[in-house]
Amino acid sequence: MLSFFDKGRRKKALAVAVAAFTVMALAGCSKEQQAPQATLVKTMEVIKRDTPIVYDYTGFVQAQKEVNLMAQVSGQITGKYFLGGEKITAGQTLFTIDQRTYQAKVLNAQAGLASAQATLIRTSRDLERYKKLYEQNAVSKQELDNRVAEAEQAQAAVDAQQALLENANIDLGETNVVAPFDGRIDTNDLSVGNYVTAGQTVLATISNTDPVFVEFSLAENEYLKLLSAHNDAGGASLENLTIVLSDGSTYSEKGRVDQVNRSITQGTGTLSLKAEFPNPAKILLPGMFAHLQANSGTVHDAKLIPQRAVTELMYKKFVYVLGDDNKVSMREVTLGPRIGRLWLVESGLEGNETVVVEGINKIKQGSEVKPEPMTEAELDTAVSLKES
């Protein structure tokens, strides 16, 4: 019996040992299976080609001159002599305002002036008589001084009445509202019968549409570059600006920077400028969107990389460069202007590197990757790798 039990214990111990060995072997296999794998990324070789450098800005068209035509007198509109949105010329009558009250004020001022002039004539004659009498010692110095004061008061009254008449005539003239310059008038809904208040009612807005301004902003460093830049034809970049309209068409006239703001905007580091564009066909209208372009010539053998290949850390720009061992290293780069979906690289790359374009959020310095090459054409259609 003892021998039988001993054999049973040995078999049980052997079974336990085999099971333990099997568990350890499986654990080892599991560890081998969990070994890190290379991360799948999309890569592209640095592009090298001659590249025209075009700086793009968003701007809005402004009138060179714009005025809100304000009512200078109060009253009802008795005449309107234009259609909203049409072109007008300097001196053209636009509105008339009820003149009756202002004509009455002119007549009243004329009557007051006539009365004051009559008084002046009488006091002047009296003064001449008193001067002769004083020379004959027939009147006192006090009486002569009184007549001098009366004549001076009469002259002051004439001056005051003349001023009132001038103001009355000015108000009467303001009832005839004319255009101050050539331009285009807005579509205002004021019409005959509307009551307007002096200094409060805007009758219409008039804009000068040839030439026009395009206001835009650019970074300080770009402004400094463009100051001395020239296009391939030798023209100064800031004097040969181009507009691309919202429908994609290119405006036929070239513009030039006419006004530069006195200082850099605090907080943004940008500078506001106004470019003047001829507008003989009246295509450009105030408020219209304008895509402004400044050409600073062609860079030969420019180095270009996709914009989404660039990552920013602590205000510096970096790209991941693929090594021969399929491991990546971070490289700081200095970037120039955007060229479509690409960045122009000013420094940091030699031009023979391959950079990671997609998957950069899943890698770090020294990561081993599985590169999948992509072409420039695929930048418009490629779907980004899932960043997880």
UniProtKB/TrEMBL annotation:
It is found in: Cell envelope. It comes from the Bacteria. Its main location: other. Residues 107-172 form the Multidrug resistance protein MdtA-like alpha-helical hairpin domain. GO terms for biological process: response to antibiotic. Belongs to the membrane fusion protein (MFP) (TC 8.A.1) family. This is Efflux RND transporter periplasmic adaptor subunit.
